Amino acid sequence: MRKQLGLISPTLMMLVTLGYGAYLRLMVRAGWESWIAYSMAGLGLYAFILFFVGGIGKAMRGEKHFDKREKFFYGYLGSLWALVVVIGIYLMGHN
Predict the structure, then answer these.
(1) Cys staple from 77: which of 21, 47, 59, 60, with CB 3.0 to 4.6 Å?
(2) pLDDT over 80 (residue 14)
(3) How many CA atoms lie within 13 A of 46 on its CB side?
(4) Where are the domains of the chain?
(5) Transmembrane stretches, by residue range (predicted)?
(6) Does residue 72 register a pLDDT over 80?
(7) Higher pLDDT, residue 4 or 12
(8) Are the C-beta atoms of 36 and 88 separated by less than 8 Å?
């Protein structure tokens, strides 16, 4: 459990930077685009890399089933990655 919390903590930090970018956007200050772009790129890449590394690790160990904690962890990463992709497409289309 502690290992998975350590793996999720960078996503929480990137979500905070995403919130800061949104705050800058609401306050109409310059530089909000960079904060949002870097945090979304970091969230998307981090989730994708964790999927890749975790899948290779399970394949090398020969494990085929996920326990409840792993399902929650990969579900969190998958939903986060999907959300970042959808928001990225929205921002590309409307800006």
Answers:
(1) 47
(2) yes
(3) 20
(4) 2-94
(5) 37-60, 72-92
(6) yes
(7) 12
(8) no
How many Å apart are CA 2 and CA 6, to the nearest integer?
Answer: 6
- What residue type is assigned to position 71 of the chain? K
CA distances from 57 to 51, 54, 90 (A): 10, 5, 34
Rounded Cα distance between 74 and 85, Å, is: 16
The predicted model scores a pTM of 0.77
Q: Give dist(CA 80, CA 95) in Å, integer.
A: 22
The C-alpha R_g of the chain, in whole angstroms, comes to: 16
How deeply is 29 buried, as exposed, middle or buried, from its count of CB atoms within 10 A (0-12, 13-18, 19+)? exposed
Strand, helix or coil for residue 67: coil
SS3 1: coil
Note the pLDDT tens digit of each residue in 22-70: 898 888 878 888 888 889 899 889 888 988 888 888 888 888 888 888 8
